[in-house]
Amino acid sequence: MSISTLNSLSVKTSPAVPVERKRQRSLAQVMVEQIEERIRSGQLKAGDKMPSEAEFVSEYGVSRTVVREAISKLQAAGWVDTQHGIGTFVLEHRTNTSFRINPNDIATSMDVLAILELRVSLETEAAGLAAQRRSEEHLAAMRRALDEFEANIDQGGDTVAPDIQFHLTIARATGNRYFVDVMSHLGSTLLPRTRLNTAQYPAPELIAYLHRVNQEHEHIYEGIARQDIEAARAAMRLHLGNGRERQRRALAERQTFS
């Protein structure tokens, strides 16, 4: 499998990007860029149902893991929304937003730490509002995300997509679309563990780490389910604070061995 395979499948409205320019991008990122171009060009319109996972695998010649990662990125960026058991649909994309943090510009570990500080403030309040305003549908969506996360840990599956879903559902439960806009815009690039070199950790250690992350999610869920505003806020603050500390330690380790 090669990047050139994906480049050859560029939409007709734009020429294929030379391989040299894409060498540092993942297959999923190239796929994301080409699907975004389909949406911008009108080939895929708001409300359209996206091709199935199997159809994308066949069209792009990539694995299901790559397809899932690409869909997660598109969802995090606010291009699409996945409805459990129904499919993934193109969203109306607002291009006139004044929010201008570009996740692709979050290049350094210090940048990530700074954004995590922003997330602590933003999502702590979101958790409190979600505890006040959540519906049974919101709780069901959170539960599905947590169960999927847990199931994927031991199977070595994707835990990023359900992680994003959990946090986005909390944002939706606030009833305030601006929380959703900001969280969608920041996307998966700001999940702390996507910036950690998890390959350096032995499998048992990585599995234990992911179980701890999801246990933190469970505490947030419990506070929201009980409509305990302060418990939900405290659990979210602890979760994101732990993520920031893990990122800080990883940065210190890199500086020690550099």
What would you note in describing this structure?
The protein is mainly alpha-helical and 258 residues long. The chain has 2 domains: 3-90, Winged helix-like DNA-binding domain superfamily/Winged helix DNA-binding domain (Arc Repressor Mutant, subunit A), CATH 1.10.10.10; 103-257, Four Helix Bundle (Hemerythrin (Met), subunit A) (Up-down Bundle). Helix content is 64%, strand content 3%. A hairpin with a 3-residue loop joins strand 1 (80-83) and strand 2 (87-90).
Q: Could you give the distance between the termini?
A: 33 Å
CATH topology of the largest domain: Four Helix Bundle (Hemerythrin (Met), subunit A)
**The CATH homology group name of the largest domain:** GntR ligand-binding domain-like
* Rg of Cα set: 19 Å
Topology:
Elements: H1 3-7, H2 19-22, H3 27-41, H4 53-60, H5 64-76, E1 80-83, E2 87-90, H6 109-133, H7 136-155, H8 160-173, H9 177-186, H10 203-225, H11 229-257
Antiparallel strand pairs: 1-2
Helix pairs in contact: 3-5, 5-8, 6-8, 6-10, 6-11, 7-8, 7-10, 8-9, 10-11
Looking at this protein, list some descriptive labels:
mainly alpha; two-stranded antiparallel sheet; 2 domains; 2 strands; Arc Repressor Mutant, subunit A; 258 residues; globular; Four Helix Bundle (Hemerythrin (Met), subunit A); 11 helices
